[in-house]
Amino acid sequence: MQESEIWLTKLFNDYLAGVGNAFLGLVGIAPEARPWTNFITVQLLVVAIILVVFALLRARLSVNRPGIFQQIFELLYEFIHGQTEEMVGHGGERYMAFFGTLFVFILFCNLIGIIPGFESPTMNASVPAGCAVATFLYYNIAGIQANGLMKHLGHFAGPILWLAPLMIPIEIVSHLARPLSLTLRLFANMYAGEQVTTVFIGLTKLIIPVIFMGLHVFVSVLQAYIFMLLTMIYVGGAVAHEEQEEH
């Protein structure tokens, strides 16, 4: 079934269809009359908003007179830093850029659906899946960089050598299940929240929609935090041997 185009997607398909088909051609997909979809166009908008927000933040940075805008992001930085120290341990600061980027991107993608005329990109399974695959690749690369390839693969064998034939298949299945778990958790919660909010906005006009929009904001923040927290846990586990040796 063809999805209903929001106004932004309609603009892209009316005026930038050639650009969309050029990108489709790069991955071997045949040209389409209307190649842009809602979750792609809104993601591009989210990225643009994030770039503008941080450009404005950088222009207003002040050591002596920090504004409210700067203070909000300083609190966010301190929160992510504290969570990183707790979940990853000493030296976790090197991974904070990825954690922060993931959290801000998912949060903005979740929250933009509250604005009339937009949809949350995370209610499309492709977006959570992309974030989950990025997380999977990142923590494995971090583990290899921290401990070397052989030590990282040694995690799969477990602490006792004679249990390795049993542990290796279990660990492989466990690690492969992580992207699926991350994808389904974020997608299911955002899709359900979006549908409930849309239904109640259609049925009522004032009090009930406000309540469910508030719930949507809470779920959006919570799901972005859970995704980031699980990513921290996976990275912490992947680099754990290096941290133990340092201590």
Brief digest:
This protein is mainly alpha-helical and 247 residues long. The protein has helices at 7-15, 17-26, 38-59, 68-87, 96-111, 126-147, 149-154, 164-203, 207-238, 240-246.
Largest sheet: none
Unreliable stretches covering 5 or more consecutive residues: 242-247
Q: Which structural class fits the helix and strand makeup?
A: mainly alpha
The CA-CA distance between the termini, in Å, is 56 Å
Mean pLDDT: 89
**What does the oligomeric state look like here?**
single chain
Overall number of strands: 0
N-to-C order of helices and strands: HHHHHHHHHH
Radius of gyration, in Å, reads 21 Å
Helix content: over 70%
Helices, by number, come to 10
Number of domains: 2
Give the arrangement of secondary structure elements.
Elements: H1 7-15, H2 17-26, H3 38-59, H4 68-87, H5 96-111, H6 126-147, H7 149-154, H8 164-203, H9 207-238, H10 240-246
Helix pairs in contact: 3-5, 5-9, 6-8, 6-9, 8-9
Write structural notes for this entry.
It is a single chain. With 247 residues, the chain is an all-alpha fold. It has 2 domains: 1-36, no CATH class; 42-246, no CATH class. 74% of the residues lie in helices and 0% in strands. The protein is built from 10 helices and no strands. It has helices at 7-15, 17-26, 38-59, 68-87, 96-111, 126-147, 149-154, 164-203, 207-238, 240-246. α6 packs antiparallel against α8 (164-203), α6 packs parallel to α9 (207-238) and α8 (164-203) packs antiparallel against α9 (207-238). The longest helix is centred in the C-terminal third of the chain and has 40 residues, at 164-203. The protein is globular and about 60 Å long. Mean pLDDT is 89; it is low at 242-247.
